[in-house]
């Protein structure tokens, strides 16, 4: 049975019970992780439980001390095969697999990557131990990088443009290593019960500790020094990665990051204080310490999600999607692009608002928007400016859906002007990071949108140029809305380029200067096929056009609204279109009676 968003009451009840079972498992076996999940947006928390319960379950199947190693491996293989079958059918009779299957179907998680992480756990079955730190790191990454990336995917589905490929961010793999080492120290007694020593032989040798010392749980001075060294390493990795990652993550994920480092740091303190007990029982952080860290973090997270996520979160209304996404790698581009084929219908408005009835002939053909006011919106809400740009990206998503719903042909948006280079390098680089994340993982590729980039590559980071070109290429055959994004665009620069091109043509004798007409001039513009702008809309109360589309918007109807761009949604676009239908477009002619 293929799972859809409409479920019977019984199905819904089974699903709720499955998620609750995952939650119970995580809470009882991993209270720290459970507490951290409570910092995620509420609608994303059940998926966190499902993901973590699945991963923990796989790990536990391999760690069962009462079974022979071959037997444990066989059990995990069987469980993984059953999971794959469930994922294909869309349902399961096992609570963890049911919750995970639902998560994958409903949230568009990366199935191949998740199964890869499970395979990495499975490989432990054939392994005796690890020799070097290098080998240890590879094991840590293979098993642990995918899970936090899935959480980022969920934030994207909730409407927050965040980087999904965390592995590309400086400091991220160090962070994973710090978590993995802390987890390993915490789980030491359990691993020793199962006869495993997963610490690299390299570090054991350095401290003259043998696996047998650990397995017999002898608290020698050498073992003590080894533990102290490992605690110090884990702490240093977590702290250095926190510093590196903080600079790139938006506020919500940064709170989760900070609290994770604080809580894992508290675990390391507790491990150090526990002395020989670390070899015998799992060490827990005292309740009052956890509360001191978690209390303020919960309060901050609640406020930040409320301000930075669209109400309700998109995932609540997101259509169920096929988990096996198409990956059409365009040969001339370095980037693999996922694109829904056929495109999904427009996502409904969160309150169910429907577009006004406007006859197609009355609709403007081309609407251009100066999306202004992100910075002021953020400042007014006590947030850094980049949060404003993030919220602005979310607003644009909704406006694009509204344009699709009403059947607009061309929408051009001003995303970065040639004058915007005057801003601080920090704001500019964050803006590009948000733009790139949005283009890679936003919902644009799911719908019938053809993306076109207008602007110059000069000075733009290569990865931004790369993603703009790849997505233009990936969407080139779409026939719905043409969305032109102006990135590094300047109107006068565009006119100057057209002038230069005409001058060259005149010099070569191709063009007679006496015959330069408006049409001929337009033909030398970089985007000569772009239709004239019928309606030019600017938000945030500024009454100017800021070097935007001087040629194409020469006779545009102007529409100015006061709200800052992050507060806009598709209903404001519809309102602008309605206003337009009442304008008398004379273009120099006489008033129609
Ligand atoms: C528009 O918002 C987005 C860009 C120019 C990139 P602003 O960042 O200009 O916001 P304000 O005008 O400072 O409020
Ligand atoms: C125009 O907004 C450019 C974009 C929206 C990308 P600005 O905020 O940069 O324009 P000014 O400085 O107010 O004219
Ligand atoms: Mg502005």
TrEMBL record:
Enzyme active site: 372, 420 (proton acceptor)
This protein's UniProt keywords: Magnesium, Metal-binding, Transferase
Essential cofactor(s): Mg(2+)
GO cellular component: cytosol; plasma membrane
Residues annotated to bind Mg(2+): 372, 557
InterPro entries recorded: Isoprenoid_synthase_dom_sf (IPR008949), Squ/phyt_synthse (IPR002060), UPP_synth-like (IPR001441), UPP_synth-like_sf (IPR036424)
Cofactor binding summary note: Binds 2 magnesium ions per subunit.
SUPFAM superfamilies the UniProt entry points to: Terpenoid synthases (SSF48576), Undecaprenyl diphosphate synthase (SSF64005)
Binding site for substrate: 373-377, 385, 389, 417-419, 421, 423, 538, 544-546
Keyword Magnesium applies: yes
Quaternary context: Homodimer.
Function: Catalyzes the condensation of isopentenyl diphosphate (IPP) with allylic pyrophosphates generating different type of terpenoids.
Family, as annotated: Belongs to the UPP synthase family.
Official protein name in the record: Isoprenyl transferase
């Amino acid at each position: 049975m293929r799972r859809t968003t409409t479920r019977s009451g019984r199905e819904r009840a089974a699903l709720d019970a499955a998620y609750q079972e995952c939650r119970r498992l995580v809470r009882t076996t991993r209270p720290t992780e459970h507490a951290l999940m409570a910092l995620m947006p509420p609608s994303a928390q059940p998926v966190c439980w499902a993901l973590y319960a699945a991963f923990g379950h796989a790990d536990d199947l391999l760690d069962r001390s009462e079974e022979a190693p071959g037997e444990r491996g066989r059990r995990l293989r069987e469980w993984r095969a059953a999971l794959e079958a469930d994922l294909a059918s869309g349902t399961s009779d096992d609570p963890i697999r049911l919750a995970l299957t639902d998560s994958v179907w409903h949230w568009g998680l990366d199935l191949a990557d998740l199964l890869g992480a499970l395979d990495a756990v499975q490989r432990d079955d054939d392994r005796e131990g690890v020799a070097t730190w290098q080998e240890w790191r590879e094991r840590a990454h293979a098993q642990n990088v995918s899970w936090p990336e899935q959480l980022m995917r969920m934030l994207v589905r909730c409407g927050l443009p965040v980087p999904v490929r965390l592995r590309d961010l400086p400091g991220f793999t160090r962070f994973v290593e710090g978590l993995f080492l802390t987890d390993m120290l915490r789980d030491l007694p359990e691993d020793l019960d199962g006869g495993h020593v997963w610490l690299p032989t390299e570090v054991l040798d350095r401290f003259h500790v043998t696996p047998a010392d650990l397995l017999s749980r002898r608290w020698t001075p050498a073992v003590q020094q080894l533990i102290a060294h490992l605690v110090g390493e884990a702490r240093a990795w977590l702290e250095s990665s926190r510093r590196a990652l903080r600079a790139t993550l938006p506020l919500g994920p940064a709170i989760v990051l900070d609290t994770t480092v604080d809580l894992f740091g508290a675990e390391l303190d507790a491990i150090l204080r526990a002395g020989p007990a670390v070899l015998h029982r799992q060490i827990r952080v005292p309740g009052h310490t956890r509360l001191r860290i978690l209390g303020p973090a919960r309060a901050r997270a609640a406020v930040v999600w409320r301000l930075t996520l669209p109400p309700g979160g998109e995932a609540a209304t997101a259509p169920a999607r096929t988990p096996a996404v198409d990956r059409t790698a365009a040969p001339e581009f370095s980037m693999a692009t996922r694109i829904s084929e056929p495109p999904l219908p427009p996502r409904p408005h969160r309150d169910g608002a429907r577009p006004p009835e406007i006859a197609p002939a009355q609709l403007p053909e081309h609407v251009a928007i100066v999306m202004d006011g992100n910075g002021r919106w953020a400042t007014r809400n006590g947030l850094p400016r980049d949060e404003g740009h993030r919220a602005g990206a979310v607003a644009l998503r909704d406006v694009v859906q509204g344009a699709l719903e009403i059947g607009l042909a061309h929408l051009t948006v001003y995303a970065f002007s040639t004058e915007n280079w005057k801003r601080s390098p920090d704001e500019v680089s964050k803006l590009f990071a948000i733009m790139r994340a949005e283009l890679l993982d936003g919902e644009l590729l799911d719908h019938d949108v053809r993306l076109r980039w207008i602007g110059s590559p000069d000075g733009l980071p290569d990865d931004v140029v790369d993603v703009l070109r790849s997505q233009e290429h990936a969407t080139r055959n779409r026939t719905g809305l043409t969305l032109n994004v102006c990135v590094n665009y300047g109107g006068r620069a565009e006119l100057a380029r057209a002038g230069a091109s005409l001058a060259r043509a005149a010099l070569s004798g191709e063009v007679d200067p006496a015959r330069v007409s408006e049409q001929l001039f337009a033909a030398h513009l970089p985007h000569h096929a772009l239709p004239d702008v019928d309606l030019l809309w600017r938000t945030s109360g500024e009454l100017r056009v800021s070097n935007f589309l001087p040629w194409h918007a020469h006779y545009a109807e102007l529409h100015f609204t006061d709200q800052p761009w992050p507060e806009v949604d598709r209903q404001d676009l519809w309102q602008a279109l309605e206003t337009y239908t009442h304008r008398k477009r004379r273009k120099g002619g006489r008033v129609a009676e």
